[in-house]
């Protein structure tokens, strides 16, 4: 009997998931970052994003290597340590028609890159910024980063005594318009969050706890798989329905917060924390601060604003990418220079 | 001027030899920073220009918002010399704090125009004094107290115009230009100038020998500062993304660029074909420039020394990942904060080699405001052709001062967007290797993000990579890329603006200079000819890496004087790295780096000492 090869499943733009894969990872087996790369592949595939229309940006560190491990058909820029926001900003200014995803780490963002990170948030440039957060520097063999919790212990026995920077609280305060935290081990939540992030217009900050199996997955670490499994407190359960999907999800009214996304998609946040309103900035920051005091790691979508103009809107630029405007639109005519010269004579 | 390195030219008791001095002297307007004297100075300068007399202006200002002394030197020169001259013959003393020192620096026979209430008559017997009741005149024409400080400056313009015999009509048309669309402001200012003019006519008896007379040496010329010219260069080169951080003295490059973009680069629907972004620091500014350049934009930043130091790491990335971008550095006095409002040419070496690792960057060296326009324009073509960051090194003297110039020529050649592959090219070729030298010029082909072809993407990185842009730690693959980058310098040599051989005769002595030093050197070469009977040759370098003709020029001379405005002979050092060993011994340096623009006399004197003349 002749066998027929099964037709590979394709997404709504007709591409198989293979077209979203990246190169083979060189990170450690079990590294949380690899799981995040897989979710990015699934999210981009399921959302039907054209791989050629994606820019992958990163800085330096284990996390920043990962753009090589997903979406090989997308343009990628692995820049310098802590400076991905500037490169991404420039690239977005040159071509705001792209979907831009930046991958950074806790060191790359919260230490060396803090200056650029906070200004990126203020501008609300349209991009997804993922922090693959493991609390340590991997490539230099396990020093604490600025997101390590007080009391967290290194393998060597060193205990962190400095307070952690909560990048989500910062992002909410400074102007990001979609802020969430997830865990690399929570496939369902992370995938839904990434899909919603793709649908959003503005700066998305996703802080994804991503355990470092080599330097920070032991007893006493607050960024280990075990610690996350025991202390992960989702504040809402995400349901995401893309604009091209025809699915009805029924929830009891009152327990769900519905968000109409920029591209027509719909995000449903089932409240797990009583009366949590993800559009209330002050409450979001207070909730994060209170949970930190209780050693809980809150996850979920903390804050969303679908109305705030992006930096691209404010610049009032033409619809076409600035980077590929024809000379006729960018080089003023001779009469312009003649006029200037006359005014200077 | 109270600057220590200026010659004290006076001889007590003499008021000159009585000869009339026409169209050949300098006026020093000594004021207080923040008093609004800038537009008055500009009107006086343009009035002399309007008389057809070649003129230049230098604003010697402090790093301060208000209250500190500032001097504006206007030089009229029938011979067309526009460099700084050491001494000014005429002092407009509006700053009581510096007047004593300023008077000491006048040559015998000099002129002091001063507020009447300052009793200066006894200070020196060899000067001409013109006391003027500025405050009284100002009060009589301006009822609003808060405007008087500004209007007072225009009164001095009128007084000087009358004393030098500048037509009031010329002043009027200068003012009309200055305040083109503001009739009320014009009326007030012209009223002030006229009041000063009339006061001088009625009350001052001309005793000094200095006159401005009509010439025809400025017809068809323009007056502009180098920063505005650089901004024009960028806009006419089609710049699309500008990222910057404010720093003196480069800020006005961006201000000019932004103004022109708003003027010329909005679509009929009012949409912008550009983005100007004030970054959080210079690290971000250059990062944005590279991100934008990578994604296909013509991108630029402007900065000065401290900002350029911050750009070092990113510039190395731009070099190694081969990304175009234009960096205009308006040099100021270093190191560190240095003297932020003083000029120097001391960022040459750091620009040429900015970053860790083995790097070399094209550096363009404009020597006039016209070249600020032309070379900034050229920098965009060069950056995209060579796929690398390109520096334009201007300086504070060139950038912030007003210069007379021939009008700029419209660049008619199409923009050179460099080697870019589009989807149809990839379809035809079946793919590409980003960093492969397929044309023998050491420049690969690139694609832009968003190109709709499965083979379009590549992975840009500052880490070790091979010709396919894949990560590598293999010595052979790494070296192959680095050697190609070294060969790219040879392409840059041919593509960068060629030097200007100002004179190449039969002299054994050659001069090499660059940038704003040109103005003083041209005057100095005339002094050397007149005073020593020596005809010497002169080549002005306009770019690094050096063209072959620079090598030829050195080879053709026995001794080559390199004149520049820094302590460490940076151009001479750069030349020594490039020249054959036997040629390097020919180089000797004439250096000035005190922060004021170099003057001709300094060069001539140093040359005479070195030559034993």
Tell me what you see in this structure.
The complex is a heterodimer of chains A (345) and B (613). Chain A is of the alpha/beta class and 345 residues long. In chain A, the strands form 3 sheets. In chain A, strands 2-1-3-4-8-7-13-9 form an 8-stranded mixed beta sheet, sandwiched between helices. A 3-stranded antiparallel beta sheet of chain A has the order 10-12-11. In chain A, 31% of the residues lie in helices and 20% in strands. The termini of chain A are far apart. Chain A has a single domain (17-324), classed as Rossmann fold. In chain A, helix 1 packs across helix 7 (187-199). Chain A has helices spanning 32-47, 62-65, 84-94, 106-110, 114-123, 167-174, 187-199, 225-231, 281-293, 311-315, 327-330, 334-344; strands at 54-58, 75-78, 99-105, 127-133, 136-137, 143-144, 178-183, 203-209, 232-234, 236-241, 256-260, 266-271, 297-304. With 613 residues, chain B is an alpha/beta fold. Chain B folds into 4 domains: 21-211, 3-Layer(aba) Sandwich (Pyruvate-ferredoxin Oxidoreductase, domain 3); 224-405, Rossmann fold (3-Layer(aba) Sandwich), CATH 3.40.50; 423-491, no CATH class; 500-611, Rossmann fold, CATH 3.40.50. Helix content of chain B is 39%, strand content 18%. Chain B has 21 helices and 23 strands. In chain B, strand 19, helix 17 and strand 20 form a beta-alpha-beta unit. In chain B, helix 1 (38-50) crosses helix 5 and helix 4 (145-164) packs across helix 6 (183-203). The radius of gyration of chain B is 27 Å and the shape is globular. The two termini of chain B are 31 Å apart. Mean pLDDT of chain B is 94; it is low at 1-12. Strand 2 of chain A pairs parallel with strand 17 (459-461) of chain B, so a sheet runs across the interface.
